[in-house]
Specification:
It is found in: Membrane. InterPro entries: CYB561D1/2 (IPR045150), Cyt_b561/ferric_Rdtase_TM (IPR006593). It is a multi-pass membrane protein. With 263 residues, this protein is mainly α. 71% of the residues lie in helices and 0% in strands. Helix 4 packs antiparallel against helix 5. The N terminus is likely disordered.
Length: 263
């Protein structure tokens, strides 16, 4: 049982770090909205939810869920113990992709006009991405690396492996940029407005990295020797080509370009 002097939970720590700047923006937004109302001008939040957001979010989550589900079924029904450490690689990588997709979807529709919703979305985003997806993909990457080492097999001999290595290095930088610009009031990058100015680069980087990760999954799921031997081609086409495209299209359909003000 926690006493009166217990440390705050991770969720509360993240929420405190993220809500303060966002709620500060709320008061400024209220003043601006009041000024507009005084002039009897209509307000329009171009960053707010659109009618297609819910459908696009469902399509993205359902599609990546099927990618992960098919992968798990075929790994677990093809004598996974005989696959050694390799079995953990597709299981954990597709699980991580599903979690990353949710982490993106849960944050996308929030806007400055909804500071509390935005803060809550950012908390969910960080818990899912940093607490679940990132560790899963690191362990999955280590599993395939370790499996190759056990067999004295060379690394990066395929496009799947090459792009996979690139994605992992990029993802580490993405995590450092995102967390460093928010946690502890962004002190890692100078704090305040200086740290917040990096958010748009974090968003843009993520929207480039995410399709690259799905393309890497496509290379492994559609063209690897194990997949070609174990999964019918029509199912590989649907699961590792068509569904990833649907995920990307759905995610991009929810993008708010106004959140990335490059000027």
């Amino acid at each position: 049982m926690a006493g009166g002097g217990a440390e705050p939970s991770l969720t509360h720590q993240i929420q405190r770090e993220t809500e303060e700047p966002l709620l500060a923006e709320e008061s400024q937004g209220d003043r601006e909205q009041g000024a507009i109302t005084d002039l009897d001008m209509p307000t329009l939040d171009k960053d707010g939810p659109r009618r297609t957001d819910n459908l696009a979010g469902i399509v993205a989550l359902a599609s990546i869920g099927l990618v992960a589900g098919v992968t798990w079924v075929f790994i677990l029904t093809h004598n996974p113990t005989s696959l050694g450490w390799f079995a953990f690689h597709p299981l954990l990588q597709t699980l991580s992709l599903a979690l990353l997709t949710y982490g993106i979807v849960t944050l996308q529709p929030t806007s400055q006009s909804q500071p509390k919703d935005k803060a809550a979305g950012l908390v969910r985003h960080q818990i899912v991405v940093l607490g679940l997806a990132f560790p899963a993909i690191l362990v999955g990457t280590w599993a395939i690396w370790h499996n190759k080492n056990l067999r004295n097999a060379p690394h990066y001999t395929s496009w799947h492996g090459t792009f996979g290595g690139l994605c992992i290095m990029w993802l580490i930088g993405q995590v450092l940029l995102g967390a460093g610009s928010v946690w502890f009031k962004g002190k890692l990058f100078g704090g305040g407005a200086k740290a917040k100015s990096l958010w748009k680069y974090h968003r843009l980087s993520g929207y480039v990295l995410f399709p690259l990760m799905l393309f890497t999954a496509h290379l492994g799921g559609a063209w690897s020797l194990w997949a070609e031997k174990s999964i019918p081609w029509i199912l590989r086409l649907l699961t590792f080509t068509i569904l990833p495209v649907l995920v990307v299209v759905s995610i991009y359909g929810r993008v708010r370009s106004s959140k990335m003000r490059f000027r």
